[in-house]
From TrEMBL:
Biological processes per GO annotation: lipid metabolic process
Domain of life: Bacteria
GO terms, molecular function: phosphoric diester hydrolase activity
Protein name stated in the entry: Glycerophosphodiester phosphodiesterase
Ranges of residues in domain GP-PDE: 9-246
Length: 246
């Protein structure tokens, strides 16, 4: 039995709404909101001078007008980049947002935040700690705190130590480790957030029996989403904001 009453919406806009506006930008968060999404996932890492900002990749190449490892750049330099033109000229000069910018947009628009801690390689502990502290500052005593997730157990562990009142989810890809329950308990997460192709009825039961919630990523097929919800999955992260109606 799932002892946890899931406190968040059941549908989450992936990278803010990255199919309809440049991913991980303010425009993407607002696009998700226009589709009626009340929760957004976005990826956060640190600049070289420890400002938390939104970017998925380790490098700037795919989503901005610059290139090279994001970890080498100071925030003052990152703030001048164009993260929109590559998606569509309509979004020219859309900037990379800070985590503080994203928090302000979420709070202003009533969007729950799924903050994925996405550390640059080697910066797992520092990123977990600083992102969690920033979330605690920005969301303060919000009734429902942001949900922080990460593939990195080191980042999650550091985050939870720095900000125990926030909620945490452990992201899983490829395979679910056999000792997942022990690790989840050690990390103090409320949910596992699993590649949906790994999910079946037995896994949903096992995770709920452990008192944990189950989130899935990234599900764009409405039939698959319906099937996962029938199994009892608590939340789905999707790019298909037009196909999966909140
Ligand atoms: O949080 C779910 C999903 O965002 C994880 O994959 O690579 O899109 O960050 P990725
Ligand atoms: Mg992500």
């Amino acid at each position: 039995m799932n002892m946890l009453r899931w406190p968040y919406p059941h549908l989450i806009a992936h990278r803010g709404g990255g199919r309809f506006a440049p991913e991980n930008t303010a425009a993407a968060l607002l696009a998700g909101s226009v589709f009626g999404y009340r929760m957004a996932e976005f990826d956060v890492k640190l600049s070289s001078d420890n400002i938390a900002f939104l970017l998925h990749d380790d490098t700037l190449d795919r989503t901005t007008n610059s290139c090279g490892p994001a970890a080498d750049w100071r925030w003052a330099e990152l703030a001048t980049l164009d993260a929109g033109s590559g998606f569509d000229p309509r979004f020219a000069d859309e900037p990379l947002p800070t985590l503080a910018d994203a928090a302000r947009i979420c709070l202003e628009h009533g969007i729950h935040a799924n903050v994925e801690i996405k550390p640059c390689p080697g910066r797992e502990v520092q990123t977990g700690k600083l992102v969690a502290q920033e979330c605690l500052r920005r969301w303060g005593r919000a009734t429902i705190p942001p949900l922080l997730s990460s593939f990195s157990a080191d980042a999650l562990s550091a985050a939870r130590e720095a900000a125990p009142p926030l909620n945490y989810a452990w992201l899983i890809e490829d395979t679910l480790p056999s000792d997942w329950l022990t690790t989840a308990q050690q990390l103090g997460v409320i949910a596992l957030d699993i590649d949906h192709t790994l999910v079946d009825a037995d896994l949903v039961t096992a995770i709920h029996d452990a008192g944990l919630a189950l989130m899935c990523w990234t599900v764009d097929d409405p039939a698959r989403a319906a099937s996962l919800f029938r199994l009892g999955v608590d939340a789905i992260c999707t790019d298909a904001l037009d196909a999966l109606q909140p």
